[in-house]
Amino acid sequence: MYHFFVDPAQIGEDEIRITGEDVNHIKNVLRMRPGEEVLISSRSGGDYHCRVRELAPDVVFLSVEEKREDSRELPARIHLYQGLPKADKMDLIIQKAVELGAYRIVPVSTRRAVVRLDSKKEEAKLRRWNAVSESAAKQSGRSLIPEVSGLLTFSEALKEAESFGLKLIPYECAEGIGGTRRLIAQAEPGMDIAVFIGPEGGFEPDEIAQAGETGVVPITLGRRILRTETAGLCILSALMLSLEREPEE
């Protein structure tokens, strides 16, 4: 079943309207016809089982068959604060983070980050990164599209996450895998969780100290040193398995 996202304003009581680029995709690429089934998700959350009713020149009208109550989202909101990596690694990180249930991805400028974005580059990158997020959300059956937000400094990211219930920062000098397991087990439904990942060069010791002053806990991910594109996915996988619940009957 094909999957599309729409804005809440496009959703009615028993009808949903698809507009924009998806109209051409539905009509001329997928060649869908009235009566075919589609899954629609609101960009702010909510899933709908629909059928194509009418294909007009600039809009596709869908009949709502059923609103699904079994959300595919994790019961906690995981915010991935990712130190800017080199080349196109951010595309991969965003794609896999969305598949693993991240609620939001935040690019972060850290001291050892090689990449520097000016305002023009940032705007173009954000458009691309949010398109990657939307594509991954469709592929993985998410109920919402995780936002890739604007670039923050490390200090700004720490301040933003100050009130979060759980804040973790994998660090190669940290010890005690048992402590990592205990912290992951503390993730609870309704919680905002921050995961801070450094760039290729990792975090500087004073950045780790700065994070600790705001309640961010350094953790180990084992005795192997993971690449920046692996570390975040490792901790996201562990959190996903800890938080995932059986679907309600």
Oligomeric state as shown: single chain
Strand content: 25-35%
In whole angstroms, the N-to-C terminal distance is 22 Å
Q: What is the CATH architecture term of the largest domain?
A: 3-Layer(aba) Sandwich
Radius of gyration: 20 Å
Low-confidence stretches: none
Shape: elongated
Task: State the order of secondary-structure elements, H for helix, E for strand.
Answer: EEHEEEEHEHEEHEHEHEH
Number of structural units classed as domains: 2
Question: What portion of residues is helical?
Answer: 25-40%
* Largest beta-sheet characterization: 7 strands, parallel
Number of helices: 7
- CATH class group of the largest domain: Alpha Beta
Content-based structural category: alpha/beta
User: Can you say what the CATH homologous superfamily of the largest domain is?
Assistant: SPOUT methyltransferase, trefoil knot domain
CATH topology of the largest domain: Alpha/beta knot
Structure description:
With 249 residues, the protein is of the alpha/beta class. It has 2 domains: 67 residues, Ribosomal Protein L25, Chain P (Beta Barrel), CATH 2.40.240.20; 167 residues, Alpha/beta knot (3-Layer(aba) Sandwich). The chain is built from 7 helices and 12 strands. Strands 6, 7, 8, 9, 10, 11 and 12 form a 7-stranded parallel beta sheet that branches. Helix 2 runs parallel beside helix 3 and helix 2 runs parallel beside helix 7. The model has no long low-confidence stretch (mean pLDDT 92).
Secondary structure elements and their pairing?
Blueprint: E1 2-6, E2 15-18, H1 21-29, E3 37-42, E4 47-55, E5 60-68, E6 77-83, H2 89-99, E7 104-109, H3 119-140, E8 147-148, E9 152-153, H4 154-160, E10 166-170, H5 177-185, E11 192-197, H6 205-213, E12 217-219, H7 228-243
Parallel strand pairs: 1-3, 6-7, 6-11, 7-8, 7-9, 10-11, 10-12
Antiparallel strand pairs: 2-5, 3-4, 4-5
